[in-house]
């Protein structure tokens, strides 16, 4: 007969205090999950966020005496002042809850039931999160292939995050490798028998993500670190067994995976509900991946006039400007990029400065409008002509100034990063 071990019936006081803290902390951190995954829960999540949007600035201003007001709320950066202060609030509230809980419930022998419930919550939260990131890599929407603007940007002008995004975006195979690691690790967390293996995989996968975020200054440091903390917490229930097997070469009894005896009807209902829930998550991730890849993936339709153009002639208010490297008004190159549903145009000036614009085209009237997304009041209104497939002429006005530009299309395939490809045999290293 195989031997099984269950959760201990008598916990040490330090174990109980630690559990109370992490129970409160993780509930605060993941809430409103799982309710946020229920269709129609937007009102709940938005109301919950509004509470923190009011509380966090007050804490920063009144309790922490920050030298500036918190006005930037969570956005593409997860390491804003708001996020740090909110994390501080989570820790303080969890610590206070643990102390009060310890006073009111000091005689309880263990929290085996609550531990089991917390582990289920964290397993599903982490699994769904890993699915989100994993499928974004499999469908290659998180890290698209370097854009024309990125290809034209000197290494030295790239931010550390931009360099990491370029590195990841170059290789579809590496996106699949990392994405499948996240998906497989997350999928294993859905099942009790494979939870330990899934947590081990995710400790390695998320640990690498945390290292990249810190080493390349990617502003997801707080979130990724908390995901790693969750994976480590899940793994602690198997910690002693893993130490016995991996370090001290001792036998490890099997973990009792059915600590709660339930009726057959309950077990069948749980299996049906779990199957439907996992299927719903998978369908949502795959469907979203297909739709997003179709609009913004590497194979998404490109906008009209897509390409890299060299400026041959540039006239401002009727005066043709010579290509002087110190000129801040003359265009040097034009890059039309983005996607058909989200086109953009980048202008490189003679002094190598760059300006990015939204690019609206009316191909029937051969008209274009350029404007900075942060300043829609000032716009270029241009007409364009294409004498041939490699030539483009644009003319029009920017407020009171008239411009005329003649452009020559360049071959994007000239870039080594684009044309190098993969080679089984390399007689000499191609390190440029």
From TrEMBL:
Record carries keyword Cell wall biogenesis/degradation: no
Keywords: Membrane, Transmembrane, Transmembrane helix
Transmembrane segments: 21-44, 84-104, 116-136, 173-191, 198-220, 226-247, 268-286
Protein name from the UniProt record: DoxX family protein
